[in-house]
Amino acid sequence: MSTPTTADPDGSLGQSTAIEHLSDRAIPASQTAEESTRSTAVTTPPATAQKAPPPEKPADILRRTSVILSFWAIVLCLGLPIWWHTTTIHKATLPLAQMSDWANGLACPPQYPIYVQLAAPNFAPEDYANLLRDTQASLDTLNDGPAGVKLRLQGPDDSSSTSAIESKVAYQVDLELGNELHAFPHKDKPRLSIQFPQSAARSLPSYIAGQLQNVFREERDLVRYYLAHSSIPAERLGDAAKGAVMTDSHLAKRMTRTLRYDPTFHLTISLFTSGSKPSAWDIDAAVAEHMQPVLDMLRPIHNFTIDTQIQLFASPSVDAQVLTKEHLSQFVNAAEWPLSPSIGGAHTINFVIFAGDQIISTDGSAGESWRSWLVPQWGSVYLLAPSSEDYVTADELKLPLQKFTSHLLSLLGVPQSSSPALRLSTLTRVRAIDLMLRASSSLGSLARLTHALPSISIPESVADSVARSIQHLENACANLGTESSLQHAQIAEAEAERAFFEKSMVGQLYFPDEHKIAVYLPLLGPIGVPLVMGLLNEFKAWKKRRSEKLKAT
């Protein structure tokens, strides 16, 4: 039974009645929170739920795929060919096997014959033939083996003596009857006269062979030296390399002062004085009388240009009256003396005359002394006795110019044989084989460099120089022992050097692969990553569409 309620005059329930009513309908707090939470969970949608995007239209997929593929088509069909064409290293074809053969001495045997004509009018034809055979056999036993100088005897009436061989005859031996066995070399021509008694006819072949060996000993030693210091393997040289070891001690000093072969040399003759006198000299007459004949003799091998100068108040770097060997290297005052440099590409040889009171002592005292010395690969210096005269005559210049001429021959590597003609022919042959070995060594170095650096650039000019060098080497080898051989060898050496030191090719030696990575990576990284990632994403989307299509079917 319900309890009646009483209303207040203002129409509201009484306070006690309202509280009592609410207490009767009270709900536990935990139940109320649980119900409110359940109600919220039911009525509120989940926050993480997202609305699925609408499916792409086929036209949009095709457009996106076309854009990605168009970028890749531009890169592959246009960018990559242009990059390949502009960055590909051009490598001209080189005859590497032939170049290596020249360097190893396989293309041309490292030897050449020296033809000697044997004249014996007092011998019967049969005896003369036996003499030629026996002398040649004696010479062959003294040969060095597969390399070096080979002496070949030729008779004046030999049917095998063609004009080509006769032009190569370098020496002549005349046999004459006499009272004793004796040899007389001619000083003005390449000829040897041998007098022999009839009783010494049996020992004559070995005697002739020994004399010829002495005549050409210096040339044989020089050839041995060049062969031993070449790129040819020692096993191909045989006894020539062993002989070079024996002669190397006395040839090494000589070869260090010898200038490298050059077809043209510039001679500078200078007069320096510490005061105002002398101020003039008769140098033209002195050169014409004492130096020009030697220059004319060397004209077939070298060309010379000459200039002269006088420098007053020029003091040497050493202020001493008695000079020792230690002073000689400091005497030339290069800072204040205007010595002419190389003119027109030709190597300059300096000949300096200093008018002063210095002398060069041999033992540190003023006793035994001399007045000139040779500077290896540079020139010569002569100390002229001081004079109160203003003019130096040609007679006073005789000794200095004679010394300069002797030093010039040493600087050019002229052999010291007695006959001028023989010295000239020997120098021609020795220089020819030296240049051939240098050219062959350069070709071999270029071949090894090409093998070692596959990425090196080889322009067409290098291939042309190599072809010309090999052609002239073949001509020089075919004409060894003649003047034409020297001309071909000089061209071959110049072309080989030009090919090896080509500027555009040498620059590749200092451009390693690490530099290429450093150049390309900053450029290709920002471009390549978007292209690759775009292609990968499109490929994944295509696989997804394909799998969904397969499931739908």
Automatic annotation (TrEMBL):
Q: Which regions are flagged for Low complexity bias?
A: 40-51
Its pathway, per UniProt, is: Glycolipid biosynthesis; glycosylphosphatidylinositol-anchor biosynthesis
Query: InterPro entries in the record, alphabetically?
Result: PtdIno-glycan_biosynth_class_S
Q: Where in the cell is it found?
A: Endoplasmic reticulum membrane
Q: Where does the chain cross the membrane? A: 67-84, 517-536
Q: Which GO terms describe its biological process?
A: attachment of GPI anchor to protein; GPI anchor biosynthetic process
**In which family does this protein belong, per the annotation?**
Belongs to the PIGS family.
Its name, as the record gives it, is Phosphatidylinositol-glycan biosynthesis class S protein
